[in-house]
Amino acid sequence: MLFGGFRRLALIACFAAAVSGGNASAQEQQEAFPNAPTITGFAPAAPTTPLATSAITPVRLAAKMTDEGAEISRGMTWRVFAPDAGPDGKLPLIASAQGGIGVFELEPGNYLVHAAFGRAGATKRITVGKEPQREELVLDAGGLELNALLPNGKAVPADKLRFAIYEDKADASGDRPLVVPDVKANAVVRLNAGVYHVVSTYGSVNATVRSDIRVEAGKLTQATVEHKAAQVTLKLVREKGGEALAETSWSIVTDSGDPILETVGPYATVVLAEGQYTIVAKNRDRIFQSEAVVESGRDAEVEVVADPEMEIDPNEGAD
Length: 319
Hints:
Blueprint: E1 6-12, H1 26-32, E2 57-64, E3 76-81, E4 93-99, E5 102-106, E6 109-117, E7 120-128, E8 133-138, E9 141-149, E10 161-167, E11 178-183, E12 188-192, E13 194-202, E14 207-215, E15 220-226, E16 229-237, E17 248-254, E18 259-264, E19 267-273, E20 275-283, E21 286-294, E22 300-305, E23 311-312
Parallel strand pairs: 2-8, 9-15, 16-22
Antiparallel strand pairs: 1-15, 2-5, 3-4, 3-6, 6-7, 9-12, 10-11, 10-13, 13-14, 16-19, 17-18, 17-20, 20-21, 21-23
């Protein structure tokens, strides 16, 4: 169920293992799974005896999204660790592989296996004997696809839209840990099942929508957020419909008096949440002020006229 600004939520019962999207890097995987074994700074293990005489056992590793799901055929990252930490406090990485099924030749003993599928993952302790064996990990994971619309049904421009996915619960500092930053619209993110806090940002100023969303194992959750915002272009002119004046700096202040943007240029194009704003334009040593109303879904051009009646005294209010 979605809360806040999300307008619809569709659940697709079959989440294909071949969903589009590349694998995350090793560093990203570690950031996504802070509880997974640390693999930075490892040195490949060397066998103590020649391979021809070492006792090794073939081990086949497979992963599924759910207990009843099919084996994931591609997009997996497998890592096999020794169970005991080394002198640096990290678990030594024994072997790794990418693809679908992981096949390793391991000496008999105990190991930790970590399986990652996008930002979804699972860890399992295994014991390898002398006979070939097969191990299966259930990720208990699904997919999340995000998009956004304006109230008039028009799609938010993809190049101005980004999502960030956070954990549902705050940590000891009161902040929600970030799970996946900078998610593009319509990108499928693979996540362990659970509730996540999603922040959608249109533009780079104050048009944001927050919501909680549940990802179900074995399903693709599609969610669309509604942004109540518009893109406005500001320009300072000598008269209505005139050319924009160069050497202009801009300040935008909300109706509650909070400054939200400062920029420089003859034009200032920004995305703002719907509402009332005070626009301040400074051209050389003259300052002009105007009020503007941003209506959701209605992009507009706002002209500030360099009229003496609109000019304000920069020393006003000074002692």
